[in-house]
Design a protein that fits this description.
4-stranded parallel beta sheet, Dna Ligase, domain 1, Rossmann fold, 9 helices, 27% strand, 301 residues, 5-stranded antiparallel beta sheet, single chain, D-amino Acid Aminotransferase, Chain A, domain 1
């Protein structure tokens, strides 16, 4: 089958591995730069073109949409869905997971474990907001931040008030979360495909760094997760509507807490830490589940 990979860079590790996995299983892989696509939106025969050529014969699409191009990338993906192409992750699910506040609210509604999270828009509300999340230390996050960028640990109440005031003064949206001290600068990345966790790794932040992102100098190692952590990760991906997801958990005294659900999880760290062919498992999932017109959120925006 012909499988499209929505990616802006064919040389990235994750994109290369998906191409290799496609070819090893006898499929044709085509890398599509979403920003080079343009669309004909009509009631009879919607289409997508790139560089003068029609992209109308794909069986499945693997979205690897960067955060900076979420809007246009999801518009292109949604057009493929309208054309009946099977998406590994659907556009609605990706936009849902990219909205940090919305994703936290959805997890809360489904009673999935998560850090206590506060959200406000006025400096006058800061004192009560900090009380709501248990006081300092707190983690302050930009809603648009990725890879640990825009995440600040405020260790004292005064520092928290100053940082929040500064962010609100710049008119940027932030959320404030309780700091899980017992996590000790580490989290668990659970890689979910379908309805199961197929691989997991522990990410440990560099010395003196509370963020565990590999992009921030963290390290990854194989980890054995508990049945509760496994259930929490699968449920979190399900709440977002994602078929393939990286679910980041914190180990707390009250059980696993979901920190983030990533719709385009990188493959390098998880494959290196676990030795598993995660790219091959994604292609295998497509082989078993891809069918024309099979988009659950079809017509729902």
């Amino acid at each position: 089958m012909k499988i499209g990979i929505l990616s802006r860079n064919s040389k990235l590790y994750s994109t290369r591995r998906l191409i290799e996995a496609c070819e090893q299983r006898g499929h044709q892989a085509v890398v599509i730069d979403a920003l080079h696509c343009y669309m004909n939106i009509n009631s009879d025969q919607p289409s997508i073109h790139s560089k003068g050529e029609s992209l109308d014969d794909f069986y499945a699409i693997i979205p690897r949409i960067g955060a900076s191009v979420t809007f246009y990338g999801c518009a292109v993906l949604r057009q493929f869905e309208m054309m009946g192409v099977f998406p590994v992750n659907e556009s609605v699910a990706i936009t849902r997971s990219r909205d940090k506040l919305r994703s936290m609210q959805l997890l809360s509604r489904r009673k999935v474990g998560m850090p206590i999270t506060g959200f406000a828009s006025k400096p006058d509300d800061i004192k009560d907001l900090l009380d709501m999340v248990g006081g300092a230390p707190v983690v302050i996050k930009l809603l648009e931040g990725t890879q640990g960028i825009g995440v600040v640990l405020a260790e004292t109440r005064k520092a928290a008030e100053s940082v929040i005031e500064a962010f609100l003064g710049l008119r940027v949206n932030i959320m404030v979360q309780e700091f899980i001290k017992e996590a000790d600068g580490a989290d668990i990345r659970c890689f979910v495909i379908g309805d199961r966790v197929i691989a997991a790794m522990k990410r440990q932040g560099a010395e003196g760094e509370f963020r565990s992102n590999l992009h921030r100098g963290g390290s990854a190692s194989l980890v054995r997760i508990t049945p509760e952590e496994r259930r929490t990760a699968v449920e979190a991906a399900k709440v977002m509507g994602l078929r393939v997801a990286g679910v980041d958990l914190l180990r707390s005294n009250r059980g696993p807490l979901v920190m983030e659900v990533n719709s385009s999880p990188g493959l390098e760290g998880i494959e290196s830490a676990t030795g598993k062919d995660v790219a091959g498992m994604i292609i295998e999932y497509i082989e078993k589940n891809a069918k024309p017109q099979r988009t659950r959120t079809r017509g729902k925006g």
